[in-house]
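[agent] plan:
  1. take the single chain provided in the ticket
  2. run structure prediction with default settings
  3. attach structure tokens to the ticket
  4. add a short note for the reviewer (M.T.)
[agent] executing step 1
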Amino acid sequence: MLVALRSRRHIAPFALHRPDTLAEALALRSAPGPSAFLAGGLDLIDWLKQGNAVDRLIRLDGLPDLATVSDRPDGLRIGAMVRHAGITDSALIRGAVPDLAELWNGIANPRVRFSGTIGGNVMAGRPEYDALPALMALGAEAEVALAPSGGAEVTPIHTIVAGEGGPSTHPSKSAPTQPVMAGDRAREGAEGPPSTALSEPAPQAADANASPVLTDAGRQRIPLDHLAALTQPLVTAFVIPVRAPATLRLFADRSLRPVITVWCGLTLADQLVATLRLAVGMAYPSAVCATMPLDLPLASLGANAADIAAGITRLLPEPVSDGQASAAYRRRMTGVLTRRILVRIGSSA
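[agent] step 2 finished; step 3 output follows
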């Protein structure tokens, strides 16, 4: 007889806190004893059902700055507590990065779309989730609060989940870890056909000695690569560098889930593709991203698809082998799907 016990009554008792400020939330997180931030909570509840326990859950829905979308001089800021449905519904996102809004129409099921958050999706650290590679392909950075002062730092997306030296094991083969920010179970891919969207290029590896850039309200922007070295960070937002007159496009091919997903982001300037960013999900413990400078008309991407795909995929690390696919197959499909996207972009220009 097989019995599955997943009721909430099996979750160990905990204290629930509802802070009104970032400083209070960070102080609760750094207090003695295990704790976790609670966003949408879908992944976190499952984690607790597995027998894990915390002394404190820290709800973040009392922090309104985390649930808003705003247009700022440094780019489009999407609060980490913005729901998936909010990505599609936001007039600011539809105006600045319409491809992201269109793509997010096909992400997850209705329950997840209206309860799961973009921040939780990233911080869950699950390779099958789409938020991390999508944001990487858009060249986004993470705004991270670290100190009780409520100040924040901004760091590139591509190191939020990966360790400083890069991941070495596939999460599906690893024991679950306590989420930093409550995740959102995006049961993506089962509800409809693969989606197509548009984006921009990924940040280059950051200089470890570079000085942080000060932003408004005492917040700092630091390279994404530094995030893995931070202790108990709270991701407060994602900043997409939308700066006129350049535009961002995002395209994705999710047709080979759960083996691999490929996301291509383009930065366009004066009708030319200035940069291509390739983000790959589900082929690594965490999404990876490579960037290639280009100076080509959009319509010429199809004719040059083979050479461009071969060049940018060489910049990626070796994928993992697991029960879904071998590393060799994933590497080959990365090139195939990248070429397909580039041909599709060129033919529609």
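[agent] step 4 note for reviewer: The CA atoms of residues 49 and 197 lie 35 Å apart.
[agent] ticket updated
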